[in-house]
Each structure stands twice: as structure tokens, then as C-alpha cells.
# Entry
Amino acid sequence: TQLLEQSPQFLSIQEGENLTVYCNSSSVFSSLQWYRQEPGEGPVLLVTVVTGGEVKKLKRLTFQFGDARKDSSLHITAAQPGDTGLYLCAGDTGGGNKLTFGTGTQLKVEL
Amino acid sequence: EPEVTQTPSHQVTQMGQEVILRCVPISNHLYFYWYRQILGQKVEFLVSFYNNEISEKSEIFDDQFSVERPDGSNFTLKIRSTKLEDSAMYFCASGGALGYEQYFGPGTRLTVT
# Structure
């Protein structure tokens, strides 16, 4: 069973601060997705990384896939209250493309 | 922008009853999935479906569960005899040619009483 551990589990910061969320596993993933989920809603896809060492940027969000494709990070620059939400990483080991979801990081950005 | 839709948004049923959850995936997608999320827990994979057959299923997806793509647009999950522990949010997802990029629907909240 693949496990994806995210850290921190909870993060409360002030507007304008930077933060990094980590997603770690002992398994190798053929791709890794980051999602954001609001209460009572479905996960919304933010980005997909597939190549070891890959870095993708989405406005103030920077995503990195580890060289060995076992870990990933999400860095948010100058966080805003609108960034508040649950951030999930999810890895695909190939085959049927089933996603294994991480434990989640609940981010709160306060004014 | 194309999106995955699901109906109903909330389904309440009694233990032992059959339920059918419906999904309309993004129209040109080829891969279809069901996941569930028990309140406060992780999103868990149930089943993947490609080329009109199940490609992978989890231990959760036992004989009480079945999936079907009855026409070119709908994708359904049937639970034959619901149990209290089936209460959860059920998410449908679809993926295009790349497969691994999965787009999720808004979910159906299933409550079994």
C-alpha cells in the first residue's frame, strides 16, 4: 500500500507570508497531482508533475517533483486569504491510474 | 470550461436499499473513476474504468458495488445493499488521453440510516 504523508497537517499564517507544504512517500510515482478541496466539494486539480526534478509555477504557487519521484513540495509566495483551503497531493503509480491521496494540509491565511 | 457533473448532490437511504449514483464525465475523456471520502478521512480510490471495463478496483469495491457506462455520456456507481459504513462523499472523476490527470466532480453525499 502506497502512503503519502503531507506536512504540516495544519498551517495558520498571516497574509503576505510564504509557506511550503511537503508530500513524501517511500513509493515512486509516475505522476503526482496537487489538488485543492473546499468543504463539501470535490478536489480541484491545480497541477500535475511527471518528470523527476520538474518545477511548475502557477501564479504565486510553485510545485516541485523530487528527483526520485517520491516526494513533492508546494510553495506559496505572499499568501492571501483566498489561498485558505485543504491542499492534497495525490500520486499515480501507473497501471490503472488510480490516485493515492495524501493526508492533506489545511491552510488558513489570516488578514 | 468542461466539468464533471454528479447527481444527486445528496442521497439519503435506508440500510439495505440499493442506490445508484450518477456522473457525467467530461465529454472527450476516456478514463473514469469513482472515489469516496468518509467524513474527516482521506479520499480513497474505489474503481477505474476504461474501454468499457474495470481496469482496477480496490478492496473496498466488493460484490455490493458495480459500475456501468450505459450510454456515451453517463457513468454510474451502484451499491446493491447499502450499509451504515457506506455513508460518505462519493466523487466521480474523469481523465483524458494522459489518464493520470483526473478531474473530479462535486460529489454525492450518501447518508445511510
